Amino acid sequence: PLTGVVHTAGVLDDGVLGSLDAERVEHVMRPKTDAAWHLHELTRDLPLRRFVLYSSAAGVTGNSGQANYAAANTCLDALAHHRRAHGLPATSLAWGMWHRISDLTAGLDDTDLARFGRGGVTPLTADEGLALFDAATDRDEALLVPVGLDPDALRESTTGTPPALYRALVRPAPARRTAGDGTADETDGAALLRRLAGLTAERRSAVLLDLVLSNVAAVLGHTGTAAVERDRAFKDLGFDSLTAVELRNRLGAATGLRLPATLVFDHPTPQDLAEHLRAGLTPGDDPSETGADTPDETAVRRALATVPLDRLREAGVLDTLLRLAQAGPDGAPTEDEEEAADARAREASIAEMDLDDLVSLALDGDDT
Fold first, then answer.
1. What gap in Å lies between CA 295 and CA 299, rounded to an integer?
2. How far is Cα 149 from Cα 159, in angstroms, rounded to an integer?
3. Radius of gyration for the chain, computed over Cα atoms and rounded to the nearest angstrom
4. Which of 6, 76, 198, 289 has its CB surrounded by the most CB atoms within 10 Å?
5. Burial level of 364, CB count in 10 A (0-12/13-18/19+)?
6. HEC readout, the chain
7. What digits encode the pLDDT tens for the residues 106-150?
C-alpha cells in the first residue's frame, strides 16, 4: 500500500518583478502548485503516514529576483496547513540551499554563492539535509524551515537587518553612537550625512565614489576596488538584475536614501551612480564650490522621513512643523477672527495629513 508521498518538483525562472509576465509565473507555479494539488486530491482517501512537500525558504523570508518562485513555494506551505486542518498528514519543508549541485542551483556561480553567504545562508551537506528531513517528518508542525545559517553573517547582513524570521537567533550588532552625548543611536545614513557636511563639494564626490566602488567590489566578490573601473558600465562589470538589486540594497542602507531597483540601469557606471547619490544627499551641490550647503525642501523631507513620528514629537520638531503650517505668509500666526477661523479649518485638515504632506505644507512659500 502507498503510505507516503514526497513532492520535490520545481523549476526556476528568476528575474526582477517588473520582468515577470504571466507565462514566466505559470512556468514556475505549475510543477509546484498544480502537481502538489493533484497529489493531494489523488491520495487524500488513502491511509498515508507522510505527505512531504519540498518548499523553499524563499517563500518564507523572500529572495531577490524570485517573486514567482516564492509565491509557488508559499502555496505548498498553505497546502500543508490545509491538509492538517482536515486531519491529513502534511509537512512542508522550506529548504535553504544545499551544497550538492542540483538542476535548480547548477546555474549559480561564485558571485551568486558569495551573495547567499553575505546574507547569512550556508549550504547544507547531504548528511545534514537527510538528518533534517528525518527530524522534521517526526514533528507535528505543518511548516518547518531547515536552513543553514551563519549568525555572524546575519548580523552583518547587507541590509543592516536580518530577515525577521532569523532575528531571534542572532545577537544584535553593537549600536553606533553619535559623537555628541553618546546616548542616541545613529544610522549609517545619518553618519554619512554628518561626515559629508564637513567636507567640500569636491571631497563629497570622492567619498561617495569610494562608497560606490567598495560596494560594487563586495557584490561582485572582489577583494578590493582595483578591479572596478569608475567609468565602465555595470553590465560590462558583470552585473545582472539580482546583483543590481543587492547593490541597491547596500547603498540604500549606507545612505538612507530610497533607491529604485533600476538604479544601476538608470545610472550605468559607478561614476554616474556616485554623482546621483551626491545629488540626493546634498541637493544643489556643485563640485566647484566648497563648504556645506543649506538644506532645501528635498533634504528636509528626506531627513524627516527616516525618523519615526514619535521621535519627532519628543524632540519638539513636530510642533514646529505644525506652527509653520498654521502660520501666515510671513511666518507669524494669524490674529483676526476670519483668519483664525481659516487657521482652525487648516488645523483640522493638517490632522489628516501624513508626514510628507505636512513637510510640504510647512515649507511651502517659506524661505526661513
1. 5
2. 16
3. 26
4. 76
5. exposed
6. CCCEEEECCCCCCCECHHHCCHHHHHHHHHHHHHHHHHHHHHHCCCCCCEEEEEEECHHHHCCCCEHHHHHHHHHHHHHHHHHHHCCCCCEEEEECCECCCCCCCCCCCHHHHHHHHHCCEECECHHHHHHHHHHHHCCCCCEECCCEECHHHHHCCCCCCCCHHHHHHCCCCCCCECCCCCCCECCHHHHHHHHHHCCCHHHHHHHHHHHHHHHHHHHHCCCCCCCCCCCCCHHHHCCCHHHHHHHHHHHHHHHCCCCCCCHHHHCCCHHHHHHHHHHHHCCCCCCCCCCCCCCCHHHHHHHHHCCCHHHHHHCCHHHHHHHHHHECCCCCECCCHHHHHHHHHHHHHHCCCCHHHHHHHHHCCCCC
7. 556 565 556 665 667 788 999 999 999 999 988 999 999 999 988
* pLDDT tens column, 214-251: 988 888 877 788 888 999 998 888 887 767 888 888 89
Instruction: Tell which phi-psi region holds residue 316, choosing left (phi > 0), alpha (psi between -120 and 50) or beta.
Output: left
C-alpha cell belonging to residue 367: 524661505
Interhelix angle 355-363/317-326, nearest 10 degrees: 50
Which of 148, 142, 161 lies closest to 121, judged by CA?
Answer: 148
d(CA 120, CA 292): 39
- Grid cell 546555474 is found at 107
Q: How far apart are CA 362 and CA 22, in angstroms?
A: 45
User: What are the backbone angles phi and psi of residue 143, rounded to the nearest 5°?
Assistant: -130, 130
State phi, psi for 218 to the nearest 5 degrees.
-65, -45
Task: Locate 79 and state its grid cell.
Answer: 497546502
Asked if residue 42 has pLDDT above 60, the reply is yes
Grid coordinates standing for 128?
A: 545534514
CB 328 within 8 A of CB 339: yes
pLDDT digits (tens, 9 = 90+) for 148-157: 988 777 766 6
Task: Cell numbers for 281, please give them.
Answer: 544627499
